[in-house]
């Protein structure tokens, strides 16, 4: 009983520390475009089918959007942080109370960047993956022999994000192959296939199909293959996974080699359980190849493999206890298991360092300047009706959370809407005169103030071509800059954000009729309110 009380007390302390750290970070966090974009899509349309039409092709399955839509109906825009926090809390509670890990190892995990920030404070769909993989591991000892129920968290996992859809098949493979009727005859194998493999595999296949039909065909086609990866790099990504897993894909070998060594070494915490080991290895090489060929992986994507590794390790430790493997490994097995432990600790310590960096950054600058712009609009009633345009267009995506009553206009696609499409079917190259012309046309047509956000304030001393997004450019000459500055006045300049969402804010002058711009500089299309 004293031991039980001591363990419960330690778990409570760990959870309290985690909650305090999450609260500290959440209080400083300003939502940026990737977070608000999901809420905007989730609340589009009067029905779920209309929401699906807005979502299809954006690159993410429906589960997160369904949760946001349901939460928004209950508590409004607070659903964005609240649902993310509750999902993260459930995952951490499961880990702390159910995972067969030491207190120190659980401490390293819950204060890692992914479990404290990326999958909790950052309100995105990846935290659901962590929760569902932990649910699978926690339920596995009791439910692995009870029909096909374990496929349910995997079916949901397949509809959190594309990466997790791929990982769900690895977990399914471990489960099904562990159920292989060893020593059985043909009848037992047939029974295994008909009663387990076909129904479980069929359910996961349908869930994966739902994921595919939601994300394909992608409308963010400019983002596909944006990294310029080649075949040689793809081959190297499998042999040296640090290439695909580094945030900076062009980092030197002195960084890639030790990081790859830690990734590969960590696999050996699963040594002695071939199915678990091979699943983790396949996940590592597969995701590294995905990052090198299809889409570069950020920290939020990379950490999904770390969560998979922890899930398999959790399952392995439960299996050892179930099978009565109590004696410590000896000889080569002991060395490999120890190397795996050191490799995993190295990866978790890196996560701790990322947490410290995130805390330092959050107190140095906000994640986005959208909240500052929202406060500026709230302080000036005449701006409540303003139409907002931006260069680049994606600067507007976080605004619906902080300035929900303002219409936003996308210059490159000549349309109203807060969800930007990174598509090649847009005006890829624009000029500063077109920005000015668009603002004036919007004001003339709708008789509203127009706010203009520029990521780079124009310099009337030189000619410049500014690249943004995946394939956009904005060109201005000194004359264009002078015309823009004459017809606008700067209201604020918000610098130094963690992301690229910092900008200068200009208000279009409306006290005079502006002269016509030079031919060829007009914004394309007639602006029309939907």
Task: Note down, in words, how this protein is organized.
By secondary structure, this protein is an alpha/beta fold. It has two domains: 45-364, no CATH class; 370-508, no CATH class. Helix content is 58%, strand content 8%. The chain contains 21 helices and nine strands. It has helices at residues 2-28, 33-42, 48-55, 63-75, 79-98, 103-110, 113-121, 126-143, 151-157, 162-178, 186-215, 231-239, 242-245, 253-266, 274-293, 299-322, 331-364, 370-379, 399-402, 432-446, 478-486; strands at residues 387-391, 408-410, 415-416, 429-431, 450-454, 464-468, 472-476, 488-494, 503-508. The strands form two sheets. It has a six-stranded mixed sheet with strand order 3-2-1-5-9-8. A three-stranded mixed sheet has the order 4-7-6. The longest helix is centred in the middle third of the chain and has 34 residues, at 331-364. The protein starts with a helix and ends in a 22-residue tail after the last strand. Residues 517-530 have low confidence and may be disordered.
């Amino acid at each position: 009983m004293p031991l039980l009380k001591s363990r419960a007390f330690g778990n409570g302390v760990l959870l309290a520390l985690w909650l305090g750290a999450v609260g500290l970070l959440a209080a400083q966090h300003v939502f940026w475009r990737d977070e608000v974009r999901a809420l905007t899509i989730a609340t589009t349309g009067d029905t779920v089918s209309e929401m699906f039409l807005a979502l299809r092709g954006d690159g993410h399955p429906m589960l997160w959007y369904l949760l946001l839509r349901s939460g928004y109906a209950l508590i409004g825009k607070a659903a964005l942080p609240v649902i993310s926090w509750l999902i993260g809390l459930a995952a951490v509670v499961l880990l702390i109370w159910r995972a067969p890990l030491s207190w120190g190892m659980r401490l390293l995990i819950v204060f890692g960047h992914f479990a404290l920030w990326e999958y909790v404070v950052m309100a995105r769909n990846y935290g659901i993956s962590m929760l569902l993989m932990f649910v699978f591991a926690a339920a596995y000892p009791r439910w692995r022999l009870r029909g096909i129920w374990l496929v349910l968290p995997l079916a949901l996992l397949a509809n959190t994000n594309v990466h997790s859809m791929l990982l769900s098949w690895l977990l399914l493979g471990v489960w099904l192959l562990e159920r292989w009727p060893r020593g059985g005859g043909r009848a037992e194998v047939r029974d295994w296939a008909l009663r387990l493999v076909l129904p479980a595999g069929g359910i996961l296949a349908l869930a994966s199909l739902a994921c595919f039909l939601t994300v394909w065909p992608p409308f963010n086609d400019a983002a596909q293959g944006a990294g310029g990866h080649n075949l040689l790099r793809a081959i190297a990504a499998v042999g040296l996974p640090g290439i695909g897993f580094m945030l900076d894909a062009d980092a030197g070998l002195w960084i890639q080699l030790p990081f790859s060594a830690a990734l590969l070494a960590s696999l050996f915490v699963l040594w002695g359980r071939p199915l678990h080991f091979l699943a983790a290895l396949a996940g590592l090489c597969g995701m590294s190849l995905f990052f090198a060929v299809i889409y570069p992986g950020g920290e939020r994507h990379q950490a999904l493999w770390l969560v998979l590794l922890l899930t398999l390790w959790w399952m392995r430790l439960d299996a050892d206890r179930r099978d009565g493997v109590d004696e410590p490994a000896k000889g080569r097995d002991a060395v490999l298991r120890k190397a795996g432990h050191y490799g995993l600790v190295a990866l978790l310590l890196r996560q701790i360092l990322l947490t410290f960096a995130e805390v330092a950054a959050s107190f140095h600058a906000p994640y986005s300047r959208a909240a500052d712009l929202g406060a500026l609009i709230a302080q000036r009633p005449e701006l409540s009706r303003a139409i907002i345009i931006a260069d680049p267009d994606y600067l507007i995506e976080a605004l619906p959370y902080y300035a929900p009553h303002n219409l936003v206009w996308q210059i490159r696609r000549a349309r109203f809407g807060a969800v930007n499409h990174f598509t090649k079917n847009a005006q890829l190259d624009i000029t500063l005169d077109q920005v000015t012309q668009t603002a004036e046309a919007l004001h003339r047509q709708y008789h509203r103030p127009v706010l203009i956000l520029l990521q780079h304030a124009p310099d009337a001393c030189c000619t410049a071509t500014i690249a943004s997004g995946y394939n956009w450019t904005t060109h201005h000459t000194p004359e264009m800059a002078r015309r823009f500055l004459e017809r606008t006045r700067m209201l604020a300049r918000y610098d130094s954000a963690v992301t690229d969402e910092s900008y200068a804010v200009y208000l279009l002058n409306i006290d005079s009729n502006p002269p016509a711009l030079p031919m060829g500089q007009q914004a394309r299309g007639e602006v029309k309110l939907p």
